[in-house]
Amino acid sequence: MRRSHDSVLTSHAGSLPRTERLVAANAARAAGEEVEGWEELLAAEVADLVLRQRETGIDLVGDGEYGKSMTSPMDFGSWWSYIFQRAEGLSLDEGGAWITDRHVSSPGDTRLTGFAFRRDQQAFREAYTDPTSGIFHGTPPVFPKVTGPLRYTGHAAIAADVANLRAAADAAGTSDAFITSLAPGSASRIANEHYASDEELLFAWADVMREEYVAVLDAGLILQIDDPSIAENYDQIEPEPALEDYLDFTRLRVEALNHALRGLPSDRIRYHLCWGSWHGPHTTDLGLRDILPTVLGINADAITFEAANVRHEHEYRVWEDVALPDGKILLPGVVSHATNVVEHPELVAERIVRIAERVGRENVVASTDCGLGGRVHGQIAWAKLRSLTEGAALATRTLWG
C-alpha cells in the first residue's frame, strides 16, 4: 500500500452509491428475473466508477462494493448480507427478524445475536419506533441462521469482483485498488444451530472467509476487512458487560481473523473498524481507547476508522498516548456517512492535520468514516468525496509547506 510520502493520499471505506440501472438490475435479479448482459453491465459500471473516483481525486480506489447486491438506493446492510449468498450451511431464520426485545445475557452467549437488540434502541425507544425519525430505512430483513457445516461457495462471484476491478484499475492507470470482504466476527452475528461453541463457529467462518481473502490478494489487489462487530457488539449485549469480559470476547474474534489471515501479506491488508452505519444516537458506544490495543493486534498494516462522526471525532487525542506501531498506516474518516451536511474542505484539512501531527504525516491516508453508498444520497456522497480530496490538498500544503 502506498504511503503519503509527499502529499496526503485519499481513499474511502468501501461502499459507493449505486447507479439507477445497477439498482434496477439487482432488484430484477432478486425477484428471480434473468437480466440479459448482467456480467457486461456490472463490469461497465465498475469501470465507470473507478474513472469517476480518479476524476474526483481519490488515489486508492475501490469497486464501490458493486458486486454486493443493493436492490434500493438506501441499504445499510449489503456490506454484511452479501456473504450469505456466498456460503453453504445456512437457512432463513423466519422467527428472528428484528426483535428489539431480545436480551443477550453475556458476551459469550451466541444463541441470541445479530442486530436483534441494541442498548441504544432501549435508551431511545421512542425515536427507534418512530418511522419518521430517520434512524432506519425500509423493511427489516429476515436473517439467515447456521444450520449445517459452513462452506464457501462464492468463487464465481469473487472472481467476477476481482476481474472487474482489476480491469477497471488497469484502464484507469492505477494499481492501488481494494476490495472489501467480511471478517469472521461480523459474519458470525447470526443464530447458530450447528456448531457446539462460539469458538467453533468463529473458526468455521474464518475458514470460509479466507478463501475470499486469498482470491483478492492473489489478483494483486488490496484487501479490506470489514468488521464493525469488534466495536459494535458492545452495544448488543445486555446488561452492559464489564470491559475486560468484553475484551476477552473480542480477542477470540481477533484470533479467528488472524487465523484466516495467516501467512497473507499484511502490507496489502487494511482493517475497517466502525461503530455501525445506522443513523442513531450512539450514546452506548465503546470508546476507541478501550478497543484500540486489541485492534492493533490484527495482522493488517492499515486501519480505517471513524474520525469525523460526531460521537467519535474527539478521539483523535488517543494518538497522543498510543504509539502507532512501526509499519502501520491510519485511514481516518474525515467525512461522515452519518450526516447529509457536506463537510467544508477546511474542516476536512483540520481533521487530517491533527491526526498527522500525532502519528506522522506519511502514516495518514484521508478516508471516509464508513461506506457512503446506501447511507446518503448519491449526489451528497460524491460532494463529500470532492470535499475530502480538496481538504487533503489543503492539508498537504500545511504538512509539507
List the helices and strands and how they pair.
Layout: E1 9-10, H1 20-30, H2 38-56, E2 61-62, H3 78-81, E3 87-92, H4 119-123, H5 125-128, E4 144-152, H6 155-172, E5 177-182, H7 184-187, E6 191-192, H8 198-218, E7 222-226, H9 229-232, H10 243-260, E8 269-273, H11 288-295, E9 302-305, E10 329-335, H12 345-359, E11 365-368, H13 378-400
Parallel strand pairs: 1-11, 2-5, 4-6, 5-7, 7-8, 8-9, 9-10, 10-11
Antiparallel strand pairs: 3-4
Helix pairs in contact: 2-6, 6-8, 8-10, 10-11, 12-13
Kindly list the characteristics that best describe this protein.
8-stranded parallel sheet, 3-stranded mixed sheet, 13 helices, Met_Synth_C/arc
What is the structure about, briefly put?
This protein is an alpha/beta fold. The protein has helices spanning 20-30, 38-56, 78-81, 119-123, 125-128, 155-172, 184-187, 198-218, 229-232, 243-260, 288-295, 345-359, 378-400, and strands spanning 9-10, 61-62, 87-92, 144-152, 177-182, 191-192, 222-226, 269-273, 302-305, 329-335, 365-368.
What does this structure look like?
- The chain is an alpha/beta fold.
- It has a single domain (9-400), classed as TIM Barrel (Alpha-Beta Barrel), CATH 3.20.20.210.
- The protein has 13 helices and eleven strands.
- The chain has helices at 20-30, 38-56, 78-81, 119-123, 125-128, 155-172, 184-187, 198-218, 229-232, 243-260, 288-295, 345-359, 378-400, and strands at 9-10, 61-62, 87-92, 144-152, 177-182, 191-192, 222-226, 269-273, 302-305, 329-335, 365-368.
- The strands form two sheets. The protein has an eight-stranded parallel sheet with strand order 1-11-10-9-8-7-5-2. A three-stranded mixed sheet has the order 3-4-6.
- The longest helix is centred in the C-terminal third of the chain and has 23 residues, at 378-400.
- The protein is globular, with a radius of gyration of 20 Å.
- It starts with 8 loop residues before the first strand and ends with a helix.
- The model is unreliable at 97-115 (pLDDT under 50).
